[in-house]
Amino acid sequence: MRFAGAGPVGRFTLFILLASRMAASPAIAAEMAVKAPAEPPSPWEVDISSAVMSDYNFRGITQSNHRPSGEIGIEPRYDFTPSLQGYVGVSGESIDFPNQSPAEIDFYAGMRPTIGKLGLDFGFWDYYYPAGQCFNAPAFCGPAAAPLPNGNIVKQNLSFYEGYGKATYTVNDNFEFGGSIWGSPSVLNSGAFGVYYAGNVTVTAPTKWFPHDVGAYVSADVGWWQLGATDAFYGGIALPSYGNWDVGLAFTWKALTLDLRYYQSNLTPVQCSVFTSDQTATLNTAGVLASNWCGAAFVAKLSVDTTLGALK
Q1: Rounded to whole angstroms, how far apart are CA atoms 198 and 170?
Q2: Whole-angstrom Cα distance, residue 8 to residue 28?
Q3: Is the pLDDT of residue 264 over 60?
Q4: Which pLDDT value is given to residue 312?
Q5: Adjacent-strand bridge partners of 252
Q6: Which residues sit opposite 261 in a β-bridge?
Q7: CA-wise closest residue to 47 among 72, 83, 82
């Protein structure tokens, strides 16, 4: 079609007709549509976790007198860059301690840099045991305070803190290993320094072995807690350094994890009583207090771990 001798008005009319034809075609209109830029992901995320377990075991020692325990936690995170994350968190577990504190409240904060397949984690962890008291002396647990009914002694305040550094190397989707070191100037407010060294390994089953959203892994940990001498309240004795390990099989489904784990330490029952001040320790055949808090233990734990973003 020719518009011979068409002036400016004719050419404008032709442009309007062609534009109308193009807009009428869905395919052409789709090609011409201008996509709105996607919003960048938020650097903020909040992890939410909770768990129930048959026993709360920490470094080979029960914290709940071999009884069931509950756990809940929240951890806000901020990604400064794709390879540097900062975080703070608080969590709580129900316990059964000799100073009668009903819970362990953990406050922590740190930074997680990543370098390729290597993940690092540096931070500070505070173990707070509220409402602690002493038998027969609820106001003050000094040298004159009466001992526990079985003869052990314990401070009213067992709270303490640790600094830590962790490293995890992810070989591939099915295998990772790592290590960590934790240090405190006064473990359980005993006056004794403590440095805890740990190593771990995790082997994850291939996803093709399971239905969608189902997975499984095997993991193991080994540690050594180097401990110093206590203050005058506990007689200035050297706490027994010890090793511990655990191995477990876990099954996952979406945000749920069922972990079945075996714990063990090399503390003798007598050493265990000295370290823990176990209020349930009993006299052995030699007439010395002995505790079963540090022996073999099998623990089943069902946990849920999700994020605030996943709940939206």
Answers
A1: 17
A2: 26
A3: yes
A4: 78
A5: 215, 257
A6: 248, 299
A7: 72
